[in-house]
Design goal:
Structural class of chain A: mainly alpha
Oligomer: heterodimer
Largest sheet of chain B: none
Strand content of chain A: under 5%
Number of strands of chain A: 0
Distance between the termini of chain A: 53 Å
Shape of chain A: elongated
Helix content of chain B: over 70%
Largest sheet of chain A: none
Number of helices of chain A: 3
Number of strands of chain B: 0
Chain lengths: 99, 221
């Protein structure tokens, strides 16, 4: 398959993830949107690696997966902390920094 | 057959099986990604995210990224999704209004569609002369295997690899610290505040008698 197809698919994934981050109010779904964005980026890395015949893109994708794991762990911990202190995970209600 | 000649003849045309596999997996991934961000129930959203990641693993495998395909299933569909499921179990809250499409957001959808068009033209989608529309180059048998990636990772990228292990350690500690229950600290602070107020009231009502607690405290030793 030509790489352009993979690149377009990666961009579609990134767009869907961005829509999830921007449109949803549930912090859990927002975190899932971020995961979708990261995976879109990863797919682009692997598509370019295949296009150039260079495996360094795979190493970067590997590092990105580890980064995403760390991001998910910390993000979900923040979510649990937010829920403990405010009894909500609705992002519209977490406005402590606005005042 | 030399792929370069095929590309010269009438543009690159991938083998039919590849096209069908890619079309099916791309449709699968897109459908479940959309499903993820539109579901009201978080459990359904997490399950469709798992389906998305499995489809992505298949797409990685079709890009000869075998090691990354396995990692995708192990780390994403395995570890990260278990984490998500646990957090959903702790705080299972459904949204009242999951997705509000206001006029400005419809404008955003139009803008995103235009952005997609621009991106597709930039990467040469449908343009026969673009290098990204030519067939992928022939790579060695070992391309994307664990041995090949491991060789690069531990020879050229050892420091980033070690740095990422440090990052994971920091993330673990940070996760524990952030999500820890602060109820004991809060209760202790409240008790200290309450004690101080009682002492102030006692001082207000009976001035000069606050020496006694310190005296008894001293005698307590």
């Amino acid at each position: 398959m030509p790489s352009a197809y993979y690149l377009v698919l990666s961009f579609v994934l990134f767009l869907i993830g961005t829509a999830g981050v921007l449109l949803r109010r549930n912090a859990l779904i927002v975190l899932m949107g971020i995961e979708l964005q990261i995976n879109g980026g990863n797919l682009a890395l692997l598509a370019f690696a295949r296009q150039l015949g260079d495996q360094k893109g795979h190493v970067f994708a590997f590092l990105v997966i580890a980064l995403a794991a760390a991001e998910a762990a910390v993000g979900l911990a923040i979510l649990v902390g937010l829920f403990r202190s405010r009894q909500t995970i609705n992002l519209d209600e977490a406005t402590l920094m606005k005042r | 057959m030399n792929p370069a000649h095929a590309a010269d003849a009438a543009g690159y045309s991938a083998p039919t099986g590849d096209v069908i596999l890619f079309a099916v997996m791309a449709a699968w991934v897109t459908f479940f990604a959309l499903f993820t961000i539109t579901r009201r129930n978080p459990v359904t959203a997490v399950m469709s995210l798992v389906a998305t990641f499995f489809g992505l693993a298949a797409i990685y495998a079709s890009l000869d990224a075998h090691f990354l395909a396995v990692l995708q299933v192990l780390v994403y569909a395995g570890a990260i999704m278990v984490l998500f499921i646990f957090v959903v179990m702790i705080l299972n809250r459904e949204e009242v209004a999951p997705l509000a499409l206001r006029p400005t957001r419809i404008l955003g959808v139009v803008a995103a569609a235009y952005l997609l068009y621009v991106f597709a033209s930039v990467v040469g989608f449908g343009d026969k002369a673009a290098p990204t529309m030519a067939g992928p180059p022939v790579v060695a048998e070992t391309y994307g295997t664990v041995a090949a990636i491991g060789g690069i990772l531990f020879r050229e990228y050892l420091y980033p690899f070690e740095a990422i292990s440090l990052l994971l350690l920091v993330a673990i500690v940070g996760g524990v610290v952030v999500s820890r229950s602060h109820q004991k600290e809060v209760a202790a602070l409240r008790a200290a505040d309450y004690r101080k107020r009682v002492e102030e009231l006692a001082e207000h009502d009976y001035p000069g008698t606050q020496e006694e607690p310190t005296a008894t405290a001293g005698g307590h030793h």
